[in-house]
Amino acid sequence: MDNTQEINYSVIIKNNPDKETLYLVNSYWSYKKGEFENKPKQLSNNYNISLHDLFLTIKEYSDVCLECNCGACNEILKQEVTSQTHFLSTLRNLPLCEECIDKQRLKQDEENKRLIEIRRKEHELAEIKYQQQTAFNSAIERYKETRIHEDEARFMIHFINTCPNRISLSYYNENYLNFYKLKLLELIHIEENFANEYVVISYPEELKDLLLCEIKQESLASKPTNANTWSRLSFLLEKNKTYRNIHTPRFSGTLLIKEDVYLEKGTKCLYGVWDRDHDDAWLTLTPTSDIIVAKNKPIHKEPEHIANILNRFLDNPENRDY
Predict the structure, then answer these.
(1) What band does 213 get if pLDDT is binned at 50, 70 and 90?
(2) Residues 249 and 313 in one domain
(3) What is the pLDDT of residue 2?
(4) In a domain, 101, yes or no
(5) Distance between CA atoms of 170 and 172, rounded to whole angstroms?
(6) Following DSSP, what letter does each residue of 283-311 receive, concatenated?
(7) Nearest to 35 by CA among 72, 84, 105
(8) 236 near 284, Cβ under 8 Å?
(9) Domain-ending residue, one of 59, 79, 96
(10) Which of 61, 94, 174, 236 could serve as a FRET partner for 309 with CA atoms 20 to 30 Å apart?
(11) Which of 221, 247, 267 is the last residue of a domain?
């Protein structure tokens, strides 16, 4: 408060003090130009009394009513004060009128309700996220028993790497089957907002690594795209010049494979070994599927026993490539 501003207050004398006490009381409450003229310690020394007795005397023989503005509006308030400290503190921290107190209380109540609502929504969101994460964890536990195509896994990895969680409705519709497959597996959560034409896709952090593992496993389990088909492998078996006994290989050497050859699991093959000059040998390895091809024939022309067919194949010089 401005020190030059006039302060209105009234000192009410009570209990009929003597002249000396009355003078003490008036001296104590004398306030001019924004400060009290006489400090309690000064009066205590002048009247040779303790500070405790001084305060008891002021309280016993005077009541003071201070006029001040409401701390929130211009309404004049009357505030009882019991000491200089109380007097100055009231001026520094103006009290509120009843109407402003009610307004402040109402505002505080509304703020409390707002905070309660915020906490409630935060709790609901936390509960939803917890339920989603629980569902994601369950889906991940079941994932070993599910299978998705490699192109579906690659699509979702690309989506995780390049797209935000919130996507346009048109992009969602274009890739609906991919998203829906993952949703059925409970690996992603889809929130559709058709009014504003967007979709929010949520997924666990572990999903990308899971899909990468799936692609790696499928790639290892599938035939390489650059592998050449083959109908026969044949190569020379060089005589081992250091042959000593049955514990030493009769043929040994190195073999250079000039292109990729994919040997598929479960392929049944026919092998044959022919003697050559200098005690060398020639080995061929041929898939039986390339030898036996079913054709429509009259019954009297049906093929002989499979062993005879294979032996005849090996005996035919045309099937030797050495």
Answers:
(1) confident
(2) yes
(3) 47
(4) no
(5) 5
(6) EEEEEGGGT-------GGG----HHHHHH
(7) 84
(8) no
(9) 96
(10) 236
(11) 221
Q: What span, in angstroms and rounded, lies between the C-alpha atoms of 156 and 208?
A: 8
Residue 224: phi and psi, rounded to 5, are: -60, 140
Strands (E), 204-268: 233-237
Gap between the Cα atoms of 295 and 301, Å rounded: 10
Residue entry with tokens 């499928």:
218
Residue 248 and residue 200 share a domain: no
Residue type, 130: Y
Contacts of 157 (CB under 8 A, 6+ apart): 208, 211, 212, 215
Q: Which residues contact 59 (CB under 8 A, 6 or more apart)?
A: 82
Distance of alpha carbon 284 from alpha carbon 99, whole angstroms: 107
Q: How many distinct structural domains can be found in the chain?
A: 3
- The residue assigned the tokens 């609502």 is 117
Helices 207-221 and 150-162 cross at an angle (nearest 10°) of 150
CB 104 within 8 A of CB 96: yes
What pLDDT, on a 0 to 100 scale, did the predictor assign at position 248?
Answer: 83
Look up residue 134 and give its amino acid: T
Give percent above pLDDT 70 in the chain: 84
Note whether 242 and 204 are within 8 A (CB): no
Closest to 1 (Cα-Cα) out of 95, 96, 88: 88
pTM of the model: 0.36
Flag whether 113 is in a domain. Answer: no
Distances (CA, A) of 19 to 16, 23, 26, 61: 9, 6, 11, 12
Residues 79 and 148 in one domain: no
Cβ density class 176-210: b for 16+ within 10 Å, e for less: eebbebbeeebbbbeeeeeeeebbebebbeebbeb
